[in-house]
């Protein structure tokens, strides 16, 4: 889990020799052989019923799409409200664990998560999948 | 049914077309298809190695994208999202077919060289680079193709293959080392 690697912070600069070799090795797509009209028609034909469905359910879909993000917005608003009421310096919930040790462990866990090779979605899922989400949120908003 | 798009007329942005497509606007969807089908075909061909497979994949990807359009986050660019749908589907197809050939790098079989010696040299270079490419995973090869041939940057590629941009840069770095080593070995042999 503690794989450490030094990822470059910028994209590689073009290497003409390598690019030339790749172009020699890999054939260019035969775009001239493709019947684009046929492809366009095939896609349009297959999409027609889907688009028709969208026309008939357009408003519902749009509403559902907007509502999907509502729980996240409500959670964020609730967290902000708790912060405003209790203040950022307020004590964390009572636990038997030393708060500074817990915060340090959480910081290390997050640092490890940042180092491993996962996509954004995987990262989010790993973070939200934690059982101790409340204290992670506390750690995120209070920084201690 | 086909409607060629007049390039002289200013076209609406992807966001507008996506919004209209969400509401079932056929012309907006056609415009998206027209805008991206050629580049989508290039990516698909490099992934699949066969023209017919690539054409099928492009069609399938546009329909899948239409089905999933409500999941698309409008704050991000559309092209990498579309290519993500295409690449994921292409990788799934390749996996499910379990072709005997471990790698199908589209080859340039019919291109004659200017001279037999030069032809032989080019042929050896091709073989070496193909061998080096075949050692990469499907996903890593897609990363190299998207960077070297399609001109996507690490952020866009990250969206396409579902990894962080830093990981894309790392994988590009590693792939280039392998490919560069293959070329260097070949050049050393040629110099002897």
In the CATH hierarchy, the third-tier topology of the largest domain in chain B is known as: Rna Polymerase Sigma Factor, Chain: A
Tell me the Rg of chain B in angstroms.
19 Å
* Envelope shape of chain A: flat
Distance between the termini of chain A: 24 Å
Number of strands of chain A: 0
Uncertain segments of chain B of ≥5 residues (pLDDT<50)?
Answer: 108-113
Written description of the protein model:
The complex is a heterodimer of chains A (144) and B (192). Chain A is mainly α and 144 residues long. Chain A folds into two domains: 35 residues, no CATH class; 76 residues, no CATH class. Chain A has six helices and no strands. Chain A is flat, with a radius of gyration of 25 Å. By secondary structure, chain B is mainly alpha-helical. Chain B folds into two domains: 102 residues, Orthogonal Bundle (Rna Polymerase Sigma Factor, Chain: A), CATH 1.10.1740; 82 residues, Winged helix-like DNA-binding domain superfamily/Winged helix DNA-binding domain (Arc Repressor Mutant, subunit A), CATH 1.10.10.10. Helix content of chain B is 70%, strand content 0%. Chain B contains eight helices and no strands. Chain B is elongated. Chain B starts with 13 loop residues before the first helix and ends with a helix. In chain B, 39% of the residues are buried. About 3% of the residues of chain B have low confidence. Chains A and B meet through helix 1, helix 2 and helix 5 of A and helix 2, helix 3, helix 5, helix 6 and helix 8 of B.
